[in-house]
Design a protein that fits this description.
about 20% strand; 4 strands; Rossmann fold; globular; about 90 residues; about 25% helix; alpha/beta; four-stranded parallel β-sheet
Length: about 90
């Protein structure tokens, strides 16, 4: 099983790309905040950055990296996931 990645719902191209690469992609609802989910259950969380301050993303303390996808391609995001999580898809 691939690494579990939570991705904000509006990043459908990123979700599709990561799924095709073998990641276990879970939808992070736009109206949720990170305190409402167990982010440590995920290997990484990918957000749009639009609601970062309002939803408290910057204040969240977690072992899981939170990746702001602003200005990044799906390939860039995968590279950041690999860099942040030690590189091996299967953990």
């Amino acid at each position: 099983m691939g690494k579990k990645i939570a991705v904000e719902s509006q990043l459908s191209n990123v979700k599709r790309y990561l799924s095709n690469k073998g990641y276990d992609v879970i939808n992070l609802e736009q109206n949720s905040n990170l305190s409402g989910i167990r982010v440590d259950d995920y290997d990484a969380v990918v957000i749009t950055g639009q609601h970062k301050d309002m939803l408290g993303y910057e204040n969240t303390h977690t072992k899981s990296p939170i990746i702001d996808a602003t200005g990044m391609t799906p390939e860039d995001i995968e590279s950041e996931i690999r860099r942040s999580t030690g590189g091996d898809l299967n953990g």
